[in-house]
Ribosomal RNA small subunit methyltransferase H
Amino acid sequence: MRFRELLIKNHIPVMLREVVEYLNINSSGVYVDATLGAGGHSHAILNKLTSGTLYSFDQDIKAIKQCQQRFINYQNIFLINKNFSCLYDELLARKVNTINGIVFDLGLSSLQINDNTRGFSYLRNNFLDMRMNCSNPITAQYILNNYSLEELQKIFQIYGEEPKARMIAKEIIKNRPLYMTFDLVKITDKFKNFRNNRGHSAKRVFQALRIEVNQELKCLQLALEQSLKLLKKDGIILVISFNSLEDRVVKQFFKKNSSHDLVWSRLPVQNKDLPTPALRIINKKVMRPSYEEQEFNSCSHSAKLRIAIKNI
């Protein structure tokens, strides 16, 4: 079946073809899917394993329960209901000290977007929740109704890159309490820029709230550092990001661990005498989905893939 037909017939995770190709799966290796979601990447990895093992993480218990049914006939996959920032301790607890490869797909899963109890979409009127882990006590509703003007402005500016952050924050405080997604959309709609209308008025604010609720960038940084500890020599790390903030974290992490320390660069030593960097970047220029995938999978439009190999 051609790729186009697969996309139409089934839910296909973003950049699946590239993930399978560049992960270079060893059939007896140990792999990690840091973002299980609907299980698309995990399924593709499992199909390449014989005696190998896959550990798949998701902090969303609904994703875990759905995939327990999907993978009920597989004996070599372990589903772990934890945020990927816990992957090092969780794997060590299972006596896993090294891995051959790890993949991160940082996009919201279709399960979460379509869940009417979660409030991730500004196109549906639901409670302002936005928790990926429903045991987390902090919701978007709590933030909107309790954060100060300065705190709201800060998260909208930093996590949403919203140019009207202060005006929106003031309007939120004036209209408290907010309970539903459309309560917030009604406010952001007041600040539409009709001369340069780039997407929905609430897009940046919703992104900022989601990142704050789930501490996404902090967790990503921790997970990348832990992945580096776990990867064996020639192990592969792939990260698919969907916004500039995520991509910046990944890019800076890869750059830092693939170049020589500033101290070494100032010493009178030749390149051959320098210590080997921990990572080697595979794609200096970020990879994007194929035109074909972008045409038939709207979720892939903003995806960026970065890949690196463990050197030592």
Confidence is low (pLDDT under 50) at residues 1-9. The beta strands are 30-33, 53-57, 77-80, 99-105, 231-241, 279-281, 304-310. The chain has two domains: 3-111+219-310, 115-214. The domain at 3-111+219-310 is CATH 3.40.50.150 (Rossmann fold).
